[in-house]
């Protein structure tokens, strides 16, 4: 019992080395929760749009063309050929239902996938655990919707170089506006409230939100199905794969399904 306690304490101390030096750390380091002004984004709007569209296409790659939970993410190395297009490291989609794991939001799924790829002994990178962890600080995570507090925290702990989201949690045309159950806490605030840890991740908000919003409008609202999906003619009224056709409006999806 005592041994267990000592082991746990040591583990905690090594996991949180910054705690012991918290007194010397700036409370809100410069840049914490900073958003990139899109006018001054070092990466071009075309390249941002390219990778956000790739995040959208992960849904049809790994899930379906009209997934209930259309949360997809890609992780990209923009430092490789900067200011070129960048290089894809891994992709991920919300796999909460598929895998029966409540932590597998798109962003966490992508991070898990990147860790597997970066540390694969037979793979392209063959990094050790500590080196894989460090590698994230070169990388940019694109996600179809603003990260929830769990995923924002994971992005913060990964010390990603950038985090780029499309549909926001709050505000006009947001997840909340379309009826999605959400913790109403923006990533920016999670980052800004981080103490004793340097926050280096730059946030690039609402990239291509005009193209992701349509993915989120039918589950809890009356919005149309995405292209190449149709509304099921039953009580559930979900969008399912099929040819586009005229559908009656006014049907609400039952909000019983966990995301
Ligand atoms: C990202 O690019 C930089 C610069 O070329 C390189 O040093 C780093 O290893 C790359 N990281 C990954 C995970 O590919
Ligand atoms: C992990 O990322 C790779 C590379 O993008 C992709 O081929 C693969 O399908 C992804 N696996 C999962 C489980 O998402
Ligand atoms: C969405 O907006 C971007 C510019 O921000 C534009 O390039 C793109 O064509 C728009 N997409 C659609 C489907 O209108
Ligand atoms: Zn999340």
UniProtKB/TrEMBL annotation:
Please state what the protein is called: Cytidine deaminase-like protein
Please state every residue range assigned to the domain named CMP/dCMP-type deaminase: 46-178
InterPro entries the record matches = CMP_dCMP_dom (IPR002125), Cytidine_deaminase-like (IPR016193)
Q: Which GO terms describe its biological process?
A: tRNA wobble adenosine to inosine editing
User: Region annotation Disordered: residue ranges?
Assistant: 240-259
GO MF terms, alphabetically ordered: tRNA-specific adenosine-34 deaminase activity
**Alphabetical list of PANTHER family matching this protein:** CMP_DCMP-TYPE DEAMINASE DOMAIN-CONTAINING PROTEIN (PTHR11079:SF203), CYTOSINE DEAMINASE FAMILY MEMBER (PTHR11079)
One short Pfam name that applies is: dCMP_cyt_deam_1
Phylogenetic lineage: Eukaryota, Fungi, Dikarya, Ascomycota, Pezizomycotina
- In the UniProt record, the signal sequence range is 1-22
Keyword annotations for this protein?
Answer: Signal
